[in-house]
Design a protein that fits this description.
The structure is a single chain. The protein is an alpha+beta fold. The chain is built from twelve helices and seven strands. β4 and β5 form a beta hairpin.
Length: about 300
């Protein structure tokens, strides 16, 4: 019975082997450079096939299989050592970030499995700090961070993380605690200065950290509202109704828009490590008072200057 196609390890004619020697040699040289693994000269294998000595071919095949197994073992061992090193570094950083007391609730097992799966490949020390803060926050208060946020963070590069931290320095929140960033003249000026002209706001909308469609703010909608900027709580005092000759559809009676943070953005903002931007709140208060007759009142009952 004729041997079926694909079962013979030497399934190429001697003439074809001769033609393939140079391409095969080059292929293995390229693969060797790409993997950092030195492979045996192809000529030995080709010669064995050309001689059609089954025992030699079998011996070479077995030796090659053992060699592959050893290289695979070394690669996996090296990768796992690196992963273990990454995890231990992150856990050490998380230990430093833990609060004095934590919830008695258990962390979801599926969550921690996914966390380890992602965090073990994080080698950059700055990104490890972000992952450590998430772990510490989840241990302190389980269900603070979704698995969707872990999946997103895995794709976030260092430049984006640094940019997001800077953006968080310009964020406010209403009574609900939900963060947003204004798009008024003052905020836009600070955004341009912070990012040197780069449109990071649009980028963060595109990747899902900010809601893409802004909400519109009117002066009369701000009266009686409370704003929070980091630890500072402010109340808004301004016109109760649209100004004469203007209304909610009037472009002249619009403070500007604002972009809410997405759920993922809200969770990551908690551990971004942002700091208040010097001068921002004071310039915003001056702008709102001058242009829209809205005063930002401090907890001490005086207008913010």
């Amino acid at each position: 019975m004729a041997e079926s196609q694909g079962t013979n390890p030497v399934n190429v004619s001697l003439v074809d082997i001769g033609k393939l020697s140079e391409p095969l040699t080059k292929l293995i040289e390229v693969v060797g450079k790409g993997t950092g693994i030195a492979y045996a000269p192809v000529s030995r294998v080709l010669q064995a096939k050309a001689d059609a000595k089954a025992k030699i071919i079998l011996a070479n095949a077995e030796a090659k299989a053992l060699s592959i197994q050893e290289r695979a073992r070394q690669r996996v061992e090296s990768q796992e050592i690196k992963r273990q090193t990454n995890l231990e570094s992150i856990v050490a950083k998380a230990a430093m970030a833990l609060p004095d007391s934590v919830s008695n609730d258990s962390v979801d097992e599926d969550w921690i499995q996914q966390y380890v799966s992602h965090a073990q490949d994080v080698s950059d020390s700055d990104m490890q700090i972000i992952w450590a803060r998430i772990l510490a926050g989840e241990v302190a208060n389980p269900s603070s961070y979704s698995k969707r946020t872990l999946q997103f963070l895995k794709t976030l590069d260092k430049e984006e993380a640094e940019g997001f931290t800077k953006l968080c320095g310009l964020t406010l929140s209403f009574e609900s605690g939900w963060l947003f960033i204004l798009s008024d003249d003052v905020t836009e000026k600070f955004v341009r200065e912070t990012f040197k002209g780069s449109n990071f706001r649009e980028h963060f909308c595109n990747i899902g950290l900010l809601a893409p469609e802004p909400y519109i703010m009117h002066p009369s909608n701000m009266n009686g509202r409370h704003l929070k900027y980091f630890d500072q709580i402010l109340s808004c005092r301004g016109p109760e109704k649209p100004r004469k000759g203007q209304g909610l559809d009037s472009i002249e009676d619009i403070i500007g828009g604002f972009n809410n943070f997405s759920q993922i953005g809200q969770e990551l903002a908690k551990i971004a490590g942002a700091q208040p931007v010097e001068g921002y709140l004071q310039q915003l208060a001056s702008h709102l008072d001058k242009e829209f007759k809205i005063s930002l009142i401090t907890e001490q009952g005086v207008p913010l200057q």
